[in-house]
Design goal:
Elements (H helix, E strand, L loop, with lengths): L29 H8 L3 E5 L4 E5 L2 E2 L2 E2 L13 E5 L5 E6 L12 E5 H4 L5 H19 L11 E3 L4 E3 L6 E2 L4 E9 L4 E7 L10 E4 L6 H13 L4 E11 L4 E9 L13 E8 H9 L22 H10 L3
Parallel strand pairs: 1-6, 11-15
Antiparallel strand pairs: 1-4, 2-3, 2-7, 5-6, 8-9, 9-10, 11-13, 12-16, 14-15
Helix pairs in contact: 5-6
Protein name: NAD(+) diphosphatase
Enzyme class: hydrolase
GO molecular function: hydrolase activity
């Protein structure tokens, strides 16, 4: 077979970009965190996980605007910018930028991820993941006791027993199945609009490896037996707390599709030329819905788009 062994991601997935120092040592250094608070920047995330954006960057206000001399209990520490300035995030109503002439708009990560610079993408993805976790983790999983944030928002502690819990991440695999030559499988979930297709994904089960999950999920969803499962890359997906782990695998176009779990409405083998033509239409939200294109493909914020584009770019 040709092509698939050199297949890799052409770009870092949008939500996997790094532009700031996570500075994890400061999470337990209360004195250092407090010292940096006076000059720290603040990211506000509202209840709909929206932020203010201006010029491709997330709007960061002054932490001092909260009127406290140290980080409040509900603030989460995101790291340091390249100049050493601390950045924190809080769940709150949004406030306009300090410059009244700045052209700012309210957007969420799904709709704005492709316009963010690296630093903004990292800060918003991290803040969204942490704040969503705190919203759902106020009580101990051990005894139901009310817990309190600790370590700059990176853990929660039962003040009575001392039991500590950390942010939960749900790993999921996402895989492009192809024949090793010029065709790949795309599928449409039952809840999706007509013509919107993507690659296959599913959550990893307890006691299961990523590779085993790929084989199981593809068999369950479309009935294909795949082989030669190879890792591509990963991307956080804080909706609310997933980590998407990307793969590609080889399938047999002669094997019939079987839709046994009810999640997939239809699937088909598409040629590289067909997929390239669909990519030229943009993503599903921007493409002309009245066009004659057989396919609408996922947006650039998803690792699915990067995987599809990287495979389609092969000669």
């Amino acid at each position: 077979m040709t092509g698939h062994r050199t297949f890799g991601l052409r770009h870092v997935p949008l939500l996997s970009r790094v532009g700031a120092d996570r500075a994890d040592a400061l999470r337990t250094d209360i004195d250092a965190a407090t010292e940096g608070w006076a000059e720290a920047l603040l990211l506000r995330v509202d209840r709909r996980n929206q932020v203010l954006i201006s010029g491709g960057r997330v709007v960061l206000g002054r932490a001092s605007s909260l009127g406290t001399d140290k980080p409040p209990e509900h603030a989460v520490f995101l790291g340091r910018l390249r100049d050493g300035q601390h950045v924190w995030a809080v769940r709150s109503a949004l406030e306009g930028p300090e410059d009244p002439d700045a052209d700012a708009e309210v957007l969420d990560l799904r709709r704005a991820g492709e316009v963010f610079d690296d630093t903004s993408a990292q800060l918003v993805a991290t803040a969204t993941a942490l704040l969503n976790w705190h919203d759902r983790a106020r009580f101990s999983a051990v005894d139901g006791a009310l817990t309190r944030p600790a370590k700059g928002g990176w853990s929660r502690v039962d003040p009575v027993s001392g039991h500590e819990e950390f942010p939960r991440i749900d790993p999921a695999v996402i895989c492009l199945v192809h024949d090793g030559y010029d065709r790949a499988v795309l599928a449409r979930q039952t809840a999706w609009p007509q013509r919107l297709f993507s690659i296959l994904a599913g959550f990893v089960e307890a006691g299961e490896s990523f590779e085993s999950c790929v084989v199981r999920e593809i068999s369950e969803e479309i009935g294909l037996t795949v082989s030669d499962v190879q890792y591509l890359g990963s991307q956080p997906w804080p909706f609310p707390r997933s980590l998407m782990v990307g793969f590609h695998a080889i399938g047999d176009p002669e094997q019939p599709f079987v839709f046994s779990d009810g999640e997939i409405a239809e699937a088909d083998w598409f040629t590289r030329a067909e997929i390239r033509a669909a990519l030229d239409q943009g993503d599903w939200s921007a493409a002309d819905r009245d066009s004659s294109s057989r396919l609408l493909l996922p947006g650039s914020i998803s690792i699915a788009r990067e995987i599809i584009e990287s495979w389609a770019a092969l000669d």
